[in-house]
Design a protein that fits this description.
alpha/beta; Rossmann fold; seven-stranded parallel beta sheet; 12 helices; globular
Length: 312
């Protein structure tokens, strides 16, 4: 029997990339997965950085089915509380519960790298809101059911398993706020048996990345060795979006996952803990790869000399 055969999951942001890989691997473990996002077969992505791309939640749901789970595509704008409420009501009506929520909800792309004092405030305000509130809205509607049952897992999929500075002040504020939100949820949920944590993928070979580097899953190793751009990105140390999917499937199947609540975990750390591999049989370790090939990034110190760290 598959370990998640009786599990009901929501992957918020499952149209492509990490969200698709997570939904796919939850399906591999046997889960019923509600694959949500704004890009559907009937209404393809029309705005933002993914406008015009072909990926849809319908395709993701089909991958879940093919892997042995049950995929259910539902078009949802997670910035709209009414749409999220309708989704949660539907799932509770059909299944009586939600066992796993995975938030893979990105906002606007980071483009303006100027220092804070040169950035427009209105754009910064909108940027942070677009990143933060869809996560908060979705969890706010899902968590009451988990608390009532005394069980559940909420995963925030975010960049990095540390509290280091994230390149630009508005982006840093958004990501750190989401990490802190996950920790705050963990603190409040601790007496109720519900787990909240952060999972950080390494550099992923998403559909967008493969297209940008003119590679496929069949040719990426060749491209990694020959392309200057690919070498600059650290493509040789990359992982598929299914690697983070297997990480989350392992967490969802762990009967003692509550002991990890409040933490931040890289896919490479979870692979060592649970013993899974990527779909190609590899076990990429992004932190080791960075230390070896990009020590100037991995070992860089803050300009102030002071670091925020996670203890425990």
């Amino acid at each position: 029997m598959k370990p998640l055969a009786d599990t009901v999951a929501v992957v918020a942001g499952a149209t492509r990339g990490a969200g698709r890989g997570i939904a796919h691997m939850l399906g591999e473990a046997g889960a019923t997965v509600y694959c949500t996002g704004r890009g559907s077969r009937a209404t393809p992505s029309a705005v933002g950085p993914y406008a015009g791309r072909a990926e849809t939640i319908d395709e993701t749901a089909a991958l879940v089915d093919a892997a042995g789970g049950r995929g259910i595509p539902v078009r949802v704008d997670h910035g709209d509380a009414a749409q999220v409420a309708t989704l949660v009501e539907r799932i509770h009506r059909d299944h009586g519960r939600i066992d796993v929520l995975v938030n893979v909800l990105g906002g606007a792309q980071l483009e303006d790298m100027r220092p804070f004092w040169e950035l427009p405030l209105d754009a910064g305000h909108a940027f942070v809101d677009a990143w933060l509130w869809p996560h908060a809205i979705t969890a706010r509607h899902v968590l009451p059911g988990m608390v009532a049952r005394g069980a559940g897992l909420v995963v925030e999929v975010l960049e990095g398993d540390t509290l280091g500075y994230h390149r630009q002040v508005w982006f840093d504020l958004a990501v750190i706020a989401l990490k802190r939100l996950s920790y705050g949820w963990a603190e409040e949920l601790a007496p109720h048996g519900v787990t909240s944590l952060v999972v950080a993928p390494g550099f992923m070979r998403t559909e967008v990345v493969l297209d940008h580097l003119h590679a496929t899953e069949e040719t990426w190793r060749t491209v990694a060795g020959k392309s200057k751009a690919a070498r600059a990105y650290g493509f040789a140390g990359s992982e598929t979006p299914c690697f983070v999917g297997r990480a989350i499937a392992a967490l969802a199947a762990d009967p003692d996952v509550l002991r990890l609540s409040g933490g931040m975990y890289g896919t490479w750390t979870l692979a060592e803990r649970y013993g899974f591999t990527d779909v190609d049989g590899a076990r990429p370790h992004w932190w080791h790869y960075l230390r070896e090939h990009f020590p100037q990034l991995a070992l860089a110190k803050p300009a102030t000399g002071k670091e925020w760290v996670v203890a425990g």
